[in-house]
Write a structure and sequence with these properties.
Layout: H1 2-14, H2 16-23, H3 29-50, H4 55-75, H5 81-84, H6 87-102, H7 109-117, H8 123-153, H9 156-191
Length: 192
């Protein structure tokens, strides 16, 4: 049940550009933004439910998000749609920053993720995960810049197409290429 709720919320956040496209004319930009804040609050509450050791902190953050959603509806009725189109760019730049920042820690983010499946990584794999982390930094940064361009300089349809479909195709291609490369390298390392 918890996993299904979490997956549902993540799915809704992924279809955000398509939801804005089809909801345009039915909901105001303020209602969209409030809805997004409520979705984030729901996600935070699910995390609080899953991880009770941080329940008070997550519940407080969820209340803050719900208060922000209320404030948006009551105090900011004139939000322009272009501001909502910046969300994919902000998310990409945030994730790029997270990947980049992890390069200055003892364990880059790609290595942390890899160790969830393979706790005992060989030295070659550890070095490889650093390159994967760099790759995701660059992919997310470039995607964020393209998202910014589509938000400010293209039609609503182009923005929706890029951020709602093309982005996920790009990420899927990067995942597949990285998986194939990792599989090939693993066989090479095991043969050596």
């Amino acid at each position: 049940m918890r996993a299904a709720l979490k997956l549902l919320l993540v799915g809704v956040l992924f279809v955000y550009p398509v939801a804005i496209y089809f909801g345009d004319g039915y909901l105001t930009p303020s209602q969209f933004l409030a809805g997004l804040l409520i979705l984030f609050a729901g996600r935070v509450l699910i995390v609080a439910w899953i991880k009770p050791e941080h329940r008070a902190r997550h519940a407080g953050f969820a209340l803050l998000l719900l208060a922000a959603a209320t404030a948006v509806l009551l105090l900011m009725p004139g939000i322009r749609l272009v501001y909502l189109r910046l969300y994919p760019m902000l998310l990409n730049l945030l994730m790029s920053t997270v990947f980049f920042g992890s390069l200055f820690t003892a364990m880059p983010l790609a290595e942390r993720i890899a160790r969830l499946v393979h706790p005992d990584l060989p030295p070659q794999a550890v070095a490889y995960t650093r390159y994967v982390t760099w790759t995701w930094c660059i992919v997310l940064l470039l995607n964020g810049l393209i998202s910014l361009y589509t938000a400010l300089a293209t039609s609503f349809e182009t923005w929706t197409l890029y951020n709602g479909i093309v982005t996920y195709l790009i990420f899927g291609c990067v995942f597949v290429v990285e998986y194939l490369l990792r599989t090939w390298l693993r066989h090479k390392w095991e043969a050596a």
